[in-house]
Amino acid sequence: MASQFSSPASQRSGHFDPAAQPLLPGVPLPALPAQCLQLDYIRDAFQRRVSWQVEPLFAQSFVPGGAAYAAARQAAVLMPLVQRDTGLQVLFTRRADHLHDHAGQISFPGGCIEPTDAGVIDTAIRETQEEIGVARQFVQVMGVQPSLLTTTQFLMTPVIGELLPGFQLAADQSEVAEIFEVPLHVLMDPAQHRLHQLQTAWGHGRCYFSVSWQSYFIWGATAILLRNFYYFLAASAGLDTRSV
After folding, report:
1. What is the per-residue pLDDT for 175?
2. What's the pTM value of the predicted model, to 2 decimals?
3. Beta-bridge partner residues of 176
4. What φ, ψ does residue 74 adopt, rounded to 5°?
5. At what angle do helices 39-47 and 220-236 cross, to 10 degrees?
6. Where are the beta strands (DSSP E) in 85-137?
7. Using CA atoms, how far apart are residues 201 and 53, in angstroms rounded to an integer?
8. Which residues pair with 144 in a beta bridge?
9. What are the tens digits of pLDDT across the range 82-139?
10. Going from the N-terminus, what domains does the chain have, and what CATH number goes with each?
11. Rounded to whole angstroms, how far apart are CA atoms 160 and 215?
12. Terminal Cα distance for the chain, rounded
């Protein structure tokens, strides 16, 4: 599932570089305790039904109801957590460069809910198998987070799940150019979350978050979902993020 803030025409013509847009100042947020980045802790946090708030800058995009929500296409993505010897990793895909929309963007595996799907969890697991070859028996779902209404009119629900040992990857090359992992501690470090300002051709300002790791630039809807996961873990640890 591609980024929320895409501009297909400008990307094809090379006029828009999301990494080059100016930065806005951000309010410092507390670092997560190391325990928050452990599988057992994350599982327990979902079971405890932690009370938390989404990223305040995009709170309106998570408000259910209204005509925009009713008209949006329903979709789901999987945020896959992978345990490695060096710690927890998050698995991403890079969309194929030949695609008409969102070419080359970093995303989680996922897509539209089909009539035959049992719900958002079933969609996320099915799309993960179709896009990157992970069989459904190797996906252990931990929980579901709030649905995001994207500017491309998708109501996208993130499903958080662990990829169990023994899973195999096989990218659908018609959609996926690359599969890679990023350490969870990098993604959950609020000091790595950058806020950009985008001025559209219509004169309307817009902002978006990004996180970089090595040569990868993660932004838009994917970055917002990562930001939300930080807020979820911060709330689970009792950290005060209300100064934002």
Report:
1. 87
2. 0.90
3. 95
4. -80, 135
5. 80
6. 87-95, 106-107, 110-112
7. 32
8. 159
9. 999 999 999 999 976 645 455 568 999 999 999 999 999 999 999 999 999 999 999 9
10. 36-236 (3.90.79.10)
11. 25
12. 28
